Amino acid sequence: MSTIERCPRCGSTNISGKKSDMPPRADGGRSTYYEFRCGDCGLWEDHNNIEADFDDWIKSWSTPASDEPARAPALEPSALRALLGRSGARMVKSAVADGQFEIDTCGGSQRVFELILALPNDAVSIAIGPEPSQLLFDWSELRELVRWARILEVENVLAHPDDNDRFVKVVRAFDDYCAFAHSGTLLGGPVRHGPALGQEGHFLTVCTAPDAVEAYLATGDPIEVARTNVLHMRGELLFEQLRERAAELGIDGMLFNPCGPPASAVFLIGVLQLL
User: Fold this and answer.
1) Which residues of 62-95 are buried (b: 16+ CB within 10 A; e: fewer)?
2) Is there a single domain that holds both residue 27 and residue 125?
3) DSSP-derived secondary structure for 49-81
4) 3-state SS class at 112
5) What DSSP assignment string belongs to 226-242?
6) Among 67, 88, 105, residue at a domain's last position
7) Model-wide pTM > 0.90
8) 135 burial type by CB count under 10 A (0-12 exposed, 13-18 middle, 19+ buried)
9) Is the terminal CB of the chain with fewer CB neighbours within 10 Å at N or C?
10) What are phi and psi of 106, to 5 degrees?
């Protein structure tokens, strides 16, 4: 069976290798020196083929071609939402190497984004999906995967604010809200006039993800959209500014993701006292 070189730390197949024949030894024997380097996580190791653990070492840098999970393609937001939003998932510690994890999307009780957010700090790769059709995300891709997991977490809490303590913690901690401004000044707009999800008033529009920003701006006047800047703001800063300027801006609340794709949510200004 053919094999594929793969990093034993992060699972990447971006491997460079070198093999060199060594000079003859005093007893006339010869040996071969091997080295491998991972282009993603930087792991470098070398071994000589006469070392006692050479066979185990060389196997640690390879995997049977038929067992290699498919490398995840660059996923569009809609595909990421579908993948991370799956329910019925469970975490499985990979038997391949330390730091590698698997999420089985069958037979569990959690959503994929919840399991992504529970990954330990030493995680270097994650394979998602049922075997044999898993998608492999390596060390270089985990950061974007975690970013989208946090997006889905805050959107879920906004849509279902059942647990007050968790609502405050997650909504306040989210660090990439998108508000809208002209010339860097936070606006009371683009303002959506009521009714908004059954609430009357003037609402500050806030989005939680790039696709939500795109969907919202697509509904605006092209001239106004051209003058509009998207401000990326941490929750603490955004809500602090709104508490201080709610009267000045003349807003009655906040409208999250008014044009989807996540569920929209509206909150009256009083919720700012919690945040």
Assistant:
1) bbeeeebbeebeebeeeebbebbbbeebebeebe
2) no
3) TTSTTHHHHHHHTEEEGGGPPEEPP---HHHHH
4) helix
5) HHPEEEEE-HHHHHHHH
6) 67
7) no
8) middle
9) N
10) -130, 145
Tokens of 168: 């405050």
* CATH code (residue 266): 3.40.1350
Per-residue pLDDT of the chain (275 residues; tens, 9 = 90+): 345 577 777 666 778 888 888 888 777 788 898 898 887 777 889 989 888 998 888 888 876 544 555 555 667 899 899 999 999 999 886 655 667 888 988 878 999 999 999 998 888 888 888 766 678 888 778 889 999 999 999 999 999 988 889 999 999 999 999 988 765 455 544 444 444 556 677 888 899 999 999 998 888 777 677 778 888 999 999 998 888 888 887 888 888 998 999 999 988 888 877 88
Token duo for residue 267: 């909150």
Number of domains present in the structure of the chain: 3
User: Looking at the structure, do residues 169 and 269 belong to the same domain, yes or no?
Assistant: yes
Judge if 79 and 173 occupy the same domain.
Answer: no
Let me know: does 12 contact 4? Beta carbons within 8 Å.
no
Residues 198 and 263 grouped into a single domain: yes
Residues whose CB falls within 8 Å of the CB of residue 154, separated by 6 or more in sequence, listed in order: 170, 171, 174, 208
Domain boundary residue, one of 103, 122, 157: 157
Q: How far apart are CA 57 and CA 34, in angstroms?
A: 10
| Domain extent at residue 186 | 164-273
| Residues 48 and 75 placed together within one structural domain of the fold | no
Shared-domain flag, residues 138 and 96: yes
